[in-house]
Amino acid sequence: MGQENTLNQQSKYCDSKGRLYFYDNAKFILIFLVVLAHVISPFKSGSESTYVVWKFINSMHMPCLIFISGFFAKRYIQPGGGLKVQRTFSYFMLYIFSQIAISVFEVLVLDKSISPSLLSARSSLWFLQCLGVWYLILPFFEKFRPEVLLTASIIIGLIIGYDQSAFNILAISRVFVHFPFFMAGYFCTPELITKLFNKKVRIAAVVALVACAVFFWFFNNCFYDGIITCNYPYAKVNGLQDFPYALRWVFRLSFYLFAFILSAAFLAVVPRKKNIFTRFGSRTLAVYILHRFLYLCWTELGWWEYFKDMKYVAVINVLISVAVTLILSLKPFSYPFDLIQKISINRLLDKKKCK
Predict the structure, then answer these.
(1) pLDDT given at position 1
(2) What is the structure's pLDDT at 339?
(3) Domain boundaries in the chain?
């Protein structure tokens, strides 16, 4: 009877293959927030409340997605400490194909004049660049003690803001600034995640989310766009020019603080059981890449202007975001990306040296 109860308990939280619903739930909600942040971005200049929501979402969704990516990166490190290079290769291939596709779309559909480049990511493809780089360097950095590496990576993330040459080429700024979230996920254990499911922790998480939201509302002017997006040096962040040069790192440190708090609180309140949207959580990569085409039309072609004067525009934006996330999560949209990830690097490798 005890074993049967254990199996029933497990079936509440995972499928027959042992895949936990929790992570798919988290990824689906996060990718929805990514889409929502992009949908409301044109409206933030005309609405302070929308601007606050945009800042709140952007301070959490990518750090948390990166944390989850780091958490699952463990499976791609071999027992001896080597890297399973196929995963890194797949990310770079996804980036190259997506970069070309979006560049062609901008030229042919949006009639934009761009400078073709594989080094400077178009749109939000920087995430794929960062993942490829992080996986490459992971076998080296995973040998460090967690507390040492996390402290050092945060310090480097603060310092890189003073380097004005660290900009969008190879997403170098974001590689360094977001690296602590990736390694925090890598060093995090399933046991630590399980502690978030404690009832008292979940209540504290709700309080933390509300407290952070209130703080964002009343101190909105303290959160600068360039700090939140992590792709600008301090000298190019609007609003920081009049702040003492030697203390500008404080704003990025506050970003780290809120990002970690919001990410932990978010994960604590994510449902563990299977939901109507759970099955879509395994196809977030397709949503992340494909929604960029719609976002470019939304902003560049002015689609958002058809809704800006509507009475319930906030509700409409949420519904549009839900629809885009659900539709792009359907299986047919993931097929091209599955095919790209099946491109094998084995033919390019010297297997003797790999061994």
Answers:
(1) 42
(2) 92
(3) 20-344
| pLDDT tens readout for residues 71-109 | 999 888 876 666 778 888 999 999 999 999 999 999 999
Banded model confidence at residue 165, pLDDT cuts 50, 70, 90: confident
Distance in angstroms (rounded) separating the CA atoms of residues 142 and 74: 10
pLDDT tens by residue, 267-320: 999 999 999 999 999 999 999 999 999 999 999 999 999 998 888 999 999 999
C-beta separation of 183 from 153 below 8 A? yes
Token pair in block for residue 217:
């509302």
Q: How far is it, in rounded angstroms, from Cα 104 to Cα 79? A: 42
d(CA 219, CA 142): 37
In sequence order, which ranges of the chain are alpha helices (DSSP H)? 2-13, 21-40, 48-58, 61-72, 85-108, 126-141, 146-159, 172-177, 179-187, 190-195, 199-218, 225-229, 249-269, 284-300, 313-328, 331-341, 351-354
Tokens of 269: 């309140």
Cα–Cα distance measured from residue 322 to residue 285, given in angstroms and rounded to the nearest whole number: 16
